[in-house]
Structures are given as C-alpha cells and as structure tokens.
Amino acid sequence: MLPSVITYDLDRCLTPSLGLRHRSSRNAMTQFNTTQPDTGFASHLAATAAETDALLGRLLSAEPAQSETARPARLLAAMRHSALAGGKRLRPFLVTETAALFGVPRHQALMTGAALECVHCYSLVHDDLPAMDDDDLRRGQPTVHKAFDEATAILAGDSLLTLAFDLLARPDTHPSAEVRVRLVGELAQASGIGGMAGGQMLDLAAEGRFGDPPAGTEASILTLQSMKTGALIRFGCRAGAILAQAPDADRDALDRYGAAIGQAFQIADDLLDVEGDAATVGKATGKDAASGKATLVGLLGIEGARARLAKLIDTADAALAGFGKDAAMLRSASRFIAERRT
Please, are residues 225 and 195 in contact by the beta-carbon 8 Å criterion? Predict the structure, then answer.
C-alpha cells in the first residue's frame, strides 16, 4: 500500500485556468521560416509561462507546507532566484499541450509542468557551478552561486529537485496513485544516471575532465545529448499522455515527437553557442569550441547541422500525424525550437 500523502490546497497555488483552446490546422513544412513568427503560438507560450510563473511563485512562498518545519529565508531566496528568473517555460508548455490533446484538466498539467521546471532549474543551478560549467550568467542575470554562494547554490538545486517529486506525489496533481507513481518514476529516470545527470557526466568526460576525451563520434554525441538535454524534453512530451492514461500508441507517438525535438533543441543550442552573442542569448557563448567539446555542429558543420535540424522537424511533424489539427501548437513548438535565438 502506498503511504498517505498530504493534500494541499491547490487554489492557493494556481491562477485561473485558460481552458482548452480551439486550434486551427496547419500543414507540415519541410523548411522553417525565421522571418514570420507564429504570433498565435507565441501568445500561448507566454500565457503558459505566466501561469507557470504564478504557480511556482506560490509553491515557493515563505509559508511552510503542512509537513515542513520551516523554510530558511536565504535558501528560499536562492530557489526563487533560479526558478522565477523568467525563461520560456518550454518544458511546462510541452506538458500542457500534450495533456490538452486528451482533455486533461489544466491544473493537473500545470502541476506536472511545474515539477518538470523545478528539475530543469535545479540542473541549471548545478551546471553553472565552478566545478561544472563555471558560468557567471544565466538568463541575463548572475547565476545562483554568484548571487549567493556555492554552498547555497548546491542546497538550492537539491531543494528544487526534491520539490519536483513532492509536487508529482500530491493528489492535486492526479487523483490516481498509479498515475502519480508513473510520473515520479519516469521523471526520476529522465533526471538521473540514465538521463540528464548521466548525460552531464558524459559531457564532462567529453571535455577531457577525467583524462583524454573519448572520440567524438556521431553516435557518442547523440547518446550524450539525448540524455543531457533530450531526456527531460521527452518526459515533458510523454507526461500529457501519462496524465490522460492514454493508449500506448499515443504515448509512443509523443515519445517519438519528444525525441526529435529534444535533439533539435540541442542542435539549435549548439548553433547559438557558435553564432549567438551573450547579450541576446542570456549566457556565455563560444564555450563549446573553447573547451574542445564535440557537438553535431562541430562534426557536421553549420550547414550540415541546419540540414539535420530541418529533418528533425519533419520527423517531429510525422510523429504528430495521428493527432491532426489538435497538434497544431506542438508543430509550432517544433519550429520555435529550431528558430530560437535565446
């Protein structure tokens, strides 16, 4: 039998739902256009970001949860510095949009998206530490260890990670314990040794941190990137189907979509590292080449990487074919990932 879980007052943690939207159909494109932004997509992304920000702000309030003793002010401030620093909130958006395909209540999707964002923010806090990537800037502001100190940053990351599983375990996230257990299990696997954390270790090894770096083959680069970057994005795409208890075929289709856009996200990120500037991107650029890190951009060249990016968007579109016009926002998300400049 599962242990009892404290029920929280969700009304204190959520802004009013925007509800499900009617979506117009959109043909799949083999080329993406960076000169004509999808304003409908942008407005939906911004609305989800605002809802996610409001929810995280309430979840990270000074008042302890029912099972907590106290929330140390400095630690809470560091958590809020990371989690409420803005950002696109793409991962929560993927949760809410995949959940909307099946009519999942929006508050369930937002809680799941907030949990995923907590893991993402924790990873950024730790990734920026001097022992890892040693970055001073994140989202245009000082990284947590610069704004506070390294010890506080480590504890802030730890606390954001554990908060994620707290959120997924709450009955407010889903009434079914089976669904909550599946969400916890899949996010844990996406975050841990076989997912993001393992990918970060491979990334450090690729820099030569532990001796001579291994040969940067395409297969090894894809493995690293599918773990470090792709695993959390894939979870975001699968989460909506898990919340809906959808058929295996639908979960598999969204998993293929997530795998494609996860790889696309990393290629776009690597292109930004080569072509972007720190003021626009919001973090240091040019670090991959300086550290000798193997990337698909380095392996395929800029034009080859862009061609691969276009193929991945086609693959993502094909995975959504069974959802018809209801997946229009997810198709737009693919293009947003490929075209992003920050």
Answer: no
